[in-house]
Amino acid sequence: MSLVPKGYVKFKSTPLFNKQSVPPILLDKYTTQTGIYGQIQVHQGELRFVGLKDGAVDKELIIKAHETAISHPKYWHRIELLSEDTQFQIHYYAHQSLLQAALSKTSVQQSASLSAASGS
């Protein structure tokens, strides 16, 4: 089982994806932003996680039903669904301090927008 580092909290999850609904970008190559971990959770079937470094395969991992794997921030990767019935989702985690900073920035922007709208 893969673990997200201490101090990181889940802030977003994708819907459940299957062969028909998986976004094409996940099958090509994809990375998370700085400070964001992705946890791939397979609910049914299995998929292959292919880690990429400088455009070449760095590592491969088979993730089966009821297993998870972690993709580190800024690590390029892609996935391959290995069975017709594969269903999975991705949970995104960020450090608490990163989320607090983002929330503070959003609050300031919303306050400024409200002030501008009210003519204050």
TrEMBL record:
Gene3D superfamilies: Jelly Rolls. Residues 12-90 form the TehB/YeaR-like domain. It comes from the Bacteria. SUPFAM superfamilies: Clavaminate synthase-like. This is Tellurite resistance protein TehB. It comes from Shewanella gelidii.
